[in-house]
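My main concern about presentation is that the manuscript never shows what a single data entry looks like. In essence, backbone conformation is discretised, so a fold becomes a row of integers matching the chain in length. An entry of this sort, consisting of the sequence and the corresponding backbone structure tokens, reads as follows:
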Amino acid sequence: MKKILILNIGNGLNKGNLALLYSAIDTIKIYSPTVEFYLMYYGNDGSHSNLDIKEQHLIAKVKIPTNIEKVKDILVSLFYLSKCYFIYFFGKFGVRIPISSSSRLFYYHESDLVLVIGGDTMSPSGRYGLNILTPFTNILYGILLNKPVVLYGESIGYYNNRVFSSIAKFIFNRVRLILVREEISKKYLDENSIDIPEIHVTADSAFLLEPSPEKQVLEILSSEGARYSIERPLIGVNTSKLISNYKGGEDRSKDEEETFNVMVKIIDNLVENLNANIIMIPHVYSDGNNTDDRDAMFAIFEKVKNKSNISMIKNEYSPQELKGIIGKCDLFIGGRMHSTIASTSMLVPTVGIAYSHKMYGIIGNMLGQEKYIVDIKDLSYEKLISTVYDAWNNRSEIKEELESIIPVVKERAMLNGKYVSELLNKLN
């Protein structure tokens, strides 16, 4: 029986990350039904515990050392990096260094293949500063331990730091298989002479995630007090504090306030002119580190005039449940990448707010919806409301386009599992 170690660079509070994880496991099992999985994941939450697989936290966590705990994390990361290099060095001379079952490296040792699932954690939009070294270091452990490494459905590049760019090139040229989810990442690999034999453009595996049954979704909407009626348009909104970080201004708090004010005006406009019900849907939760989408939701709700027409999903739900909720919308405005993957795969006309190339590569290029993307750097009320009404007025045509392209995209997403299975079959 083959064994795969999944390095899940995100955490279970990010429902887009969980959508990637669940759909990747399901897809690989279609092609390799007997494969066994280990999981090493980022963060300290227990949100992965509903998976019936062995799991532990990632070994390497590299952050700007602002406190003693983060300094300790860096020292632990370096300790295991030196240990892996020690094993690698002596292995070149035929000397095998044993790894005990109690070692944090044991899952690496036991696995036939290391699979990296992070979405955009290896691009500056996903992690910035020293944080980007977290995925690179965890991948390097696998490379030094002579394990074939696969980058699964990733967005990669572009680095504005020469050091990180050099590290990325070093890592990417030593993995066995790279599966990117859009052409822009493939272009980056080509431009930077990443010349491993197998690089494929597939699609984000979350397109394959099955939504929860309608009955369950309606029960959630009822329990949340959501206003859902077939007589009135239901427009979903997902936003976060994260996107304001990429607006480009010198004052992030001012950028955040401006972004929220735009969303307030958009919501009031849609209620007043379309007689719409608005449902605000989080896609990332947290325990107080300023990334919880609900914080943005509450801040916006406090400012809108037409509160009686607005519902909020306040509790935490699985990615399948959130996808089902999003699928009930007539139009969706999304700031989180995977919220827009959920909406478009449910054939919901979607306006995306982009803060990196991944939105353009996936929703724009792959799905042909680029005219319905607004860049965070160009975000204004006038620009966004114009795009929203353009999407609303053309919603029938957009749905037809999505009905045509989504099956093709799902076939491409299935290729991720096929390529991994083919590599597994080549291993001794």
Summary: The chain has a mean pLDDT of 91. The first strand starts at residue 3 and ends at 8. DSSP finds 14 helices and 13 strands in the chain.
